[in-house]
Amino acid sequence: MSESAYNFAYLDEQTKRMIRRAILKGLAIPGYQVPFASREMPMPYGWGTGGVQVSAAVLHPEDTFKVIDQGADDTTNAVSIRTFFEKTAQVKTTTRTSEARVIQTRHRIPEEGLTEDQILVYQVPIPEPLRFLEPRESETRKMHSLEEYGLMHVKLYEDISRHGHIATSYAYPVKVEDRYVMDPSPIPKFDNPKLGDMAAIQLFGAGREQRIYALPPYTKAVSLDFEDHPFEASKADHPCGLCGAEDSYLDEVIVDDEGGRMFVCSDTDYCEGRRAKGFVGAMAATDQMAATTMTKPTLEVL
Amino acid sequence: MSRADQPLLSVKSLSKFYGAHIGCKDVSFDLYPGEVMGIVGESGSGKSTLLNCMAGHLAPDRGEVVFDTRADGPRDTVQMSEPERRMLSRTDWAFVHQHARDGLRMGVSAGGNVGERLMAVGARNYGDIRGKATDWLQRVEISADRVDDRPTTFSGGMQQRLQIARNLVTGPRLVFMDEPTGGLDVSVQARLLDLVRGLVRDMGLSAIIVTHDLAVVRLLADRLMVMKSGHVVEAGLTDQVLDDPQHAYSQLLVSSVLQV
Ligand SMILES: [Zn+2]
Fold first, then answer.
1. For A116-155, how does the pLDDT look when each residue is reduced to its tens digit (9 = 90+)?
2. Chain A residues with CB within 8 Å of chain B CB
């Protein structure tokens, strides 16, 4: 297919209108999963087709677009989605969080605080937080509509009884505006506190499951827990080896053939920004050149 | 049997049809607090249809199921909104299925199974929930150290006792039971019946027990209804009906049991 045959952002106008209607409904009912007629995209489902369709529906030609995959802009998945929109929408792209108008993400929320001018689009594999214990779609829908969320706590109960603490560390469920329980997609629970009261619009797209849901700006989102096992936004207890940040989510990376390891910011733009400002971590000080040229794909083998 | 002056449950002209076929027709009775009603009949007699209509699992075509609610007194549960009825069914009502698998979450630990109803009504203290679950396991004669085991590792009798614990943990006032001993070995049945009888007595529970097994109602039920082809053909005190059945069908039912 030649490029001229593409509609702006690939999808035809009618499809984008349909998706925008689902998004508006999602924003009107924060945390509620809105069904939508997901389209075939020229990429496999596991590659974030839900997020891609949402991005396509909200992108303007003058927007600047950023894609992150587990915090990094340079993974195959992130590069292919970025390239897709460069080709089909001719939008400018960036790796800088602050410069992006629309950010599509898989598995992370950027460290840098987002603003009211920005939209964060999540790729969602499984939108239904109750799926784990109740496979029947008809029943989970009823549970949401009747606010029957005891089952969510059964899941956390099972966690504690098995591990002694709430071991769920990704896709940690939140209650939105005291109403709907929502799966925030597989972000680390470290990111959960950023979901609530965020200035930016947050949109969640699940392609295979054909669901869209949303958090409008400054929405209340509370992580579920027990009184005697309160929610904790945990991360590795280290500073970033490259930039020294102590407040960012870290990945453990293998740095040499001898099994040497270091902890680095999972948000590469955040880390680079700090280093550009002169912050230096313990590992970067000893071998700055080697460390700064290290790339994220190393993570995939961990 | 303690008879308060007001029925806990009042069933009036309850009817359910499957097209031209009668599920159950014009069933009426009152159940008083602390009373156990047995409903017997062969398969196809309409006793399960009746039970499911009363418990809100099936929508009846006619009639009322008036329950004396804690908050608002007697209310027709057939006319209740679904959220209200579902709330009732996980607080003041309980339902024990014939097959424990239908009433348990097989992928969840015994403690999680028992704790679910507590969490569903807002319990948010893990220690309390676990404590109550453990206590209830022991009340149904399951060792406390099985609290983290899944029901798949339990015997049939244990699964059924776990289902009972899961249902009774919130202190319901009315328990529906559908062939609670069906499919269990005779020796296991006897132990379960003793347990249920003890719980009913200790908690002052009201219960409606559907069964084809007259030994079950002989042991548990204060009163009895005999059903045939969707109709109640005879009703009365259990001993009376079993020892001196009046209706020809009741006589047949009792005698066929004696042959076993
Ligand atoms: Zn860093």
1. 999 999 999 999 999 988 889 999 999 999 999 999 999 9
2. 133, 146, 148, 150-151, 153-154, 157-158, 160-162, 226-229
Which domain-ending residue is among B171, B197, B221? Answer: B171
Cβ of B81 under 8 Å from any chain A Cβ?
no
Active-site residue A46, yes or no? no
Predicted ipTM of the assembly: 0.90
What is the pTM for the complete model shown? Answer: 0.87
Chain B residue with minimal CA distance to A149?
B120
CATH number of A236-284: 2.30.170
Among B204, B197, B211, CA closest to B48? B211
Name the class of domain A13-223: alpha beta
Q: In chain B, which residue's Cα lies nearest the Cα of A148?
A: B120
Q: What are the sequence ranges of the domains in chain A?
A: 13-223, 236-284
Q: Chain A closest CA to B136's CA: distance in Å? A: 17
State the average pLDDT over residues A241-263.
Answer: 91
- Domain range for residue B30? 1-8+21-92+173-259
**Does B2 have pLDDT greater than 60?**
no
Structure-block tokens of residue A134: 């109740």
* Number of C-beta neighbours around residue A170 at 10 A: 13
Cα-Cα-Cα-Cα dihedral sign, residues A278, A281, A282, A287: negative
Q: Let me know whether B254 and B177 are in one domain.
A: yes
A123: its two tokens = 């790729």
* CB-CB under 8 Å, A158 with B115: no
